[in-house]
Each structure stands twice: as C-alpha cells, then as structure tokens.
Design a protein that fits this description.
The structure is a single chain. The chain has 16 helices and 29 strands. It has 694 residues and is of the alpha+beta class. It has a domain at 83-289 and 429-484: Jelly Rolls (Sandwich), CATH 2.60.120. Helix 1 packs across helix 8 (486-497), helix 1 runs antiparallel to helix 9 (500-531) and helix 11 packs antiparallel against helix 12 (582-591). The longest helix has 40 residues, at 2-41.
Length: 694
C-alpha cells in the first residue's frame, strides 16, 4: 500500500501528460493526413500555384503570426531588372537549365578523388516547411563537387553602385569539416566553359561560411590585380569578433549577406545581424597597397657591430670563500637513528609465496628470481635497511658564481638594414573596382552531405535584398519558430477548449500534497512516537501471538511448529527417564509455564543444591532472580540466562547422547531424573522453558 501511495502522484501526472499529448498529436496527425489527401488529389497536375491555392483555402493553418494570420509561403515575386542573378530553385525545370555541373578534374591529386563527381539535386528540405519551397542540395560527402550558373547580366565595378550578394544555407546534417561558400567567377576566358569549373577557375570574390574542427571562418576573399604588373593576390578579410557556431549545429536555414560599397567599405551579416564591417584598404591581409619603402636586400650588418646592451664586468673576481661545488642540501649532523631501526633487515624481500612459472625456460629466460615484496618485519619498526640522516639546507651553499653585468660601452643598438624605395610600390585608393563578375559557382569539398542552398541573389540595392528576404527567409524562419512551439501552442489551445483540464491538473497537484502533508506525515509521526516508549504496540502483540494477532487477550496462545516439535522432543526424553512424570509433563505443556518437579526440602535437598552449585549448574532460585518474579511472558531473558542455558544444554547433551535434545533449544537440563520413583537430590533437576521465553 505504501508503494502505491508513493507512485500515485507520478501515475496521475503521467495520465494527464498522455491525455494532453494525445490531443496535440491528433491535431498534428489530422493536419498531416489532410496534406496527404491533398497530395493524392492533386497528384499529376503541373500547375503548382493552383494546388497551393486549393490547399490554403481548405486546410487549417499550421502556424499563425502574432495577429492570427496564417503563415504561408509563395515563390517570391520580383522584378528581374533589379537583379544580376536570382534563383529561388522552386521552379525546378528552369533552375536545372540555369545551372551547369562541373566535369573537371583537380590537378596534382590522386586520380580516384580528382574528379568532381559530387551529386547535386533539387529537392525540398528534410525538415519540410513547405513542400513547394525547393533548394539546391549537395547530396554527397567526401567528394569534390562543383556547379555554376551564368549571371543574367555581368556585374561591373565601374559604376558607383553597391554589390549585394545574399543566399541561404541549411546544413541539414550539421557540419564538422567543410564549407558552404560561393564564388563570384570573374569575366575571364578561363571561366567561360562552366563544365570545366574547378578550384583554379578565376574568381573575383569568395564569400560564405567554412569550418573544419574548431576553426570556423566567415570567408570574404577578393582577388586584387596589381595595377603595375598585373599580378593577382588574394586579400583575406579579418575574422569577425563573434564566433559563429550555431549555423553549423542547429540544422536551420541561415541568411548570409555581403555588401561591398564604392567607398571601399564592406559589411557582412548573418540572419540580418551585422557581424563584421571594415575597409578594403585597412582590414585585409596582406594589405592592398604595398609599403613605399623596403629593406635593402644588399645591405649587411658590419662585423664589429655590437648589439649587446650589457656585458659581464671584466674586473670582477670570485670571493675566496665562494664554493661553487657546495651542494644545496647536506645531511643533518644532529639527527640520530630512531630506536628500533632494523639495519640488518632489507626493506624488500623475495616473495615467499611466488613460484617459478611452468613455462619458464632457464636457457631462454635466464635464472628465475622471485618478485620483491615489502618486508613484513619492517611494518611495525621505524624503518629497515641502512639508516641515512635527513637532508637540510646547506648554510654554505651560494650557487654558481657569476660576474655582475655592466653597461656595454661599445653598444650601438639593434642593427637594421637601410630602407630603399620599393620598386613594386603602387597605391590603389579604390580597390572596390575589382574584376567584373560573369558567373556564380559553388565549389566544395565537405564531410557532411545534404547541404541546401536557396534563394541566391546578386543585386546592387540593399533594399531589394531585404525585401526579397522578407518573402523568403523571414517567412521561413518565422514559420519554424512558431512550429517549434507547436507543442506549447497545442497545449494552450487544448486548455482553452477544455477548461475542465485545469481542474484535473489542480486535483492531481493538490491531492498528493494533501495526502503527504496531513495523512502520510501523521502516520509516520505516530509510528515514531510509539517507538520512543516501551509500551507494547499492535505489531508486538501480533508477533507475540505468532503473527495471528488474536484480539482476545485471555485466549490461549497457539504454539508454533518449532515449539510443538521442541515440546515433543522434551516429552519423549522425559518419558524415557521419568515414566512416573509423563502425566505431569502434559500438564506442564498445556499451561506453558515453568514446571519443576517437587523435591524433598530436607537435608538431602539442601546438600543437592550445594553440590549443584559446585558444578556450576543453574538452580531454580537463580532463574527466578534473573527473571524477577519469574513471569517470562512479559520480560525477556537476560544475557546471563542465555549463556547459562547454552552451558547447561551442552552438558546435558553430552551426558545423554540424545540427538533429539540437540534440536530442542527450549529446555534446560537440570538433573538426571528419578530412579525407582525416588528423587535424586544429588544431581541437578531438569527444567523446561517455553519457546516465547527464549
């Protein structure tokens, strides 16, 4: 019953949780079933717009905004004139015509991994928001993958306009090592054939997230052309202050935006939050403009150039009493060997219990020696073996003598080569004017698959990019955030539709608390108070009655099986030795009291008592004194009685050689019995005790 009382609150809470969750699951399952019905109904139709409108008209909203309006997705509407490139990937047929998969091979790499054979596919995300929202997915991992598409019109940096690049990435399986960046390919003859797109294809800008282990980057690299010699150098943006870990772990869509302005400033944002800003002139490594002067490579340091600020004093001498060889510690001269130190005993001795292994080969393994163990003789001694005085600090120790340092009179400072004009110096005050962009490509090697790219745009207006994000990314994230709270929303709706559930919850909380505070605690307190007294408790009475708990205090107590067997054994033994007392033994068993045979109170009886005391046998008076008034049903036997009983039983068992008397632990052997009907007062008398007395 107590276990049931303890489990009641948990069982009740579990039932309510199942009730609420089943309600929520039924709501969601009903919605999913409706979606499946709609898919079957419209299967085979080519007009996706008509299908979406039909769904929206007849289906219940899966998520609503703060105003209660259903959150739905439609392929974004846009003016193509505002974009240099745009692809939402929803129109799979058109998008597949736009993108070209690379068939190239990497140079200077093993043939089996040199080919760009990564798999690309157009599909909805694994965590479906809307099935019509399709993205470009890298399906393979640990393979080189490349795909590219031409811009609607090239982007040139000759006009004073911003470059805005924006796209979404969902790392559906997370990411441990790999990137999700894009490359804006330069307008160059080498990048004309997109089927040969590879890691060496000229690009103007590389932008996007990358990670390998704990190294997390947000790439922004642009290739700068030297205006003097035409050489190209990659310029790497400094890392943002914030560490971007969530996009690689949460498996949610994230929006990446790069803005490069004609004033050479740039801005990088993730999910509309700016994480890095700076200048193309000052915040890239190596810097865009080289230094105007450089070290003369022909200049060399003179041989007599002294760069030492301080030197050792040549006039200093070591003192005569300075001992370089003095140790830092010496034995304590005042220490004495402790008393009991066993110098003749080794600290370790061969293990006497060790034996030669059976596979020991004396020719191969050599002479066998037992392993050493601690000498047991040394355990109680202060120590064993050669005694050595403890070490103390050496008062004469000074260490190695060194001459003090003084200023170098010949010091001329640190030598540096002279500066000359940089023959490659140039000053590009407008690095914004980069190589024109003709295509956009994705060239990756990743250890994770199912990387989804979506809503990739290139424009020259930040407002256009923001407006496009409100139709795509913002709607998607708002929907996901609402759906992530779906269980909570369903629960709220359930309680709103079913006010009685609040009463059930209240009862489930109140009832266990009430039971615990007023009933269970009172029961525990009552038991604790009872244990503080010597008064007989109901459990004690039940135990005394053999577990039956007889309500009638005057009723006869039933004997246990052990008592009956012990009584029978005693009766048998007594019958053999006391044939005249057989009837008296029965009377003694029925009344379950101490029975002692009547003896003579004459001189012979006194002498027998004296003789019994001499041999150490316990007398009736001793038993009465140990037990008080002799009422064994109320008081337990003392330790003296228990020991005396064991002592007497042992003597009797040895004298009678009777195995049955060994099983009976409920009798004291007090005498040898009667002989010829006369009481032998020279020997201890026999006495039986009840089971419950022991």
């Amino acid at each position: 019953m107590r276990k049931l009382d303890q489990r009641f609150p948990s069982v009740a809470l579990l039932l309510v949780a199942l009730l609420i969750s089943s309600k929520c699951i039924n709501n969601v399952a009903g919605r999913e079933a409706e979606d499946d019905d709609y898919e079957d109904e419209f299967d085979g139709r080519a007009d996706n717009t008509e299908m979406n409108e039909k769904k929206q008209e007849n289906s219940a909203p899966l998520a609503t905004d703060d105003n209660g309006i259903e959150i739905t997705y439609e392929s974004p509407k846009y003016d193509i004139a505002n974009f240099y490139f745009i692809d939402h990937f929803d129109d799979t047929e058109m998008s597949q015509k736009l993108w070209v998969k690379s068939q190239a091979k990497k140079d200077d790499i093993a043939e089996e991994i040199a080919k760009y054979d990564g798999v690309w596919n157009w599909e909805a995300p694994q965590r479906i928001v809307w099935k019509d929202d399709v993205g470009l997915v890298l399906k393979s991992k640990a393979k080189h993958a490349a795909i590219a598409a031409r811009l609607t019109k090239p982007f040139t940096f000759t006009e004073n306009k911003d470059l805005v690049v924006q796209y979404e990435v969902t790392m559906q399986e997370g990411q441990e090592c790999g990137g999700a960046y894009i490359k804006l390919l330069s307008a160059d003859p080498e990048s004309e054939d997109l089927t040969m797109f590879n890691d060496k294809t000229p690009y103007t800008i590389m932008f996007g997230p990358d990670k390998c282990g704990n190294d997390i980057k947000m790439h922004f690299i642009f290739r700068h052309v030297n205006p003097i010699n035409g050489s190209i150098t990659e310029k790497h943006c400094r890392k943002p202050k914030e560490r971007l870990e969530e996009p690689f772990k949460d498996k949610l869509p994230h929006l990446y935006r790069l803005v490069v302005r004609p004033d050479n400033s740039y801005e990088i944002s993730v999910d509309h939050k700016v994480i890095n800003t700076g200048s193309l002139l000052t915040d890239f490594t190596p810097p865009v403009n080289p230094p105007s002067t450089i070290d003369d490579p022909q200049d060399k340091k003179p041989d007599d150039w002294d760069e030492r600020e301080k030197i050792t004093d040549p006039t200093a001498k070591k003192p005569d009493d300075w001992d370089d060889d003095a140790p830092p510690q010496v034995p304590d001269a005042n220490a004495v060997m402790p008393d009991g130190w066993l110098e003749d005993e080794p600290e370790m001795i061969p293990d006497p219990a060790a034996t030669i292994p059976e596979d020991w080969d004396f020719e191969m393994d050599g002479e066998w020696e037992a392993p050493l163990v601690d000498n047991p003789i040394c355990e109680k001694a202060p120590g064993c073996g050669t005694w050595k005085a403890p070490l103390i600090s050496n008062p004469n120790y000074k260490g190695k003598w060194r001459a003090p340092l003084i200023k170098n009179p010949n010091y001329r400072g640190k030598w540096t080569p002279r500066k000359i004009a940089n023959p490659d110096f140039f000053e590009d005050l407008n690095p914004y004017k980069m190589t024109p962009i003709a295509s956009v490509g994705i060239e990756l090697w990743s250890m994770s698959n199912n990387i989804l790219f979506d809503n990739l745009i290139i424009t020259d207006d930040v407002k256009v990019a923001l407006d496009y994000a409100t139709q795509t990314f913002d709607v998607k994230r708002k929907y996901i955030e609402k759906k992530s709270d779906s269980v909570l929303n369903q629960t709220k709706a359930f309680f709103k539709e079913s006010p009685w559930a609040w009463f059930v919850i209240a009862m489930i909380i109140v009832l266990p608390l009430t039971y615990y505070c007023f009933i269970y605690n009172n029961k525990k307190d009552g038991c604790a108070d009872a244990k503080k007294t010597d008064a007989i408790q109901p459990d004690d009475v039940s135990n005394a009655d053999g577990g039956n708990g007889d309500k009638n205090p005057n009723s006869k107590k039933k004997k246990s099986d052990l008592e009956v067997k012990a009584a029978d054994a005693t009766e048998t033994n007594a019958g053999n030795e006391f044939p005249d007392d057989e009837s008296d033994s029965k009377d003694k068993d029925s009344t379950e009291s101490f029975e002692m045979e009547e003896g003579s109170e004459d001189k012979d009886g006194e002498d027998s008592d004296a003789d019994a005391k001499k041999i150490g046998a316990i007398q009736p008076n001793d038993i009465r004194n140990a037990g008080g008034d002799g009422d064994s049903s109320k008081k337990k036997k003392s330790d003296v009685e228990v020991k005396a009983a064991g002592f007497t039983e042992t003597d009797v068992l040895d004298d009678d050689n009777d195995d049955k008397d060994k099983e009976s632990t409920e009798s004291f052997e007090m005498g040898q019995g009667h002989k010829g009907g006369e009481e032998d007062t020279t020997k201890p008398r026999k006495r039986r005790v009840r089971k419950d007395e022991s």
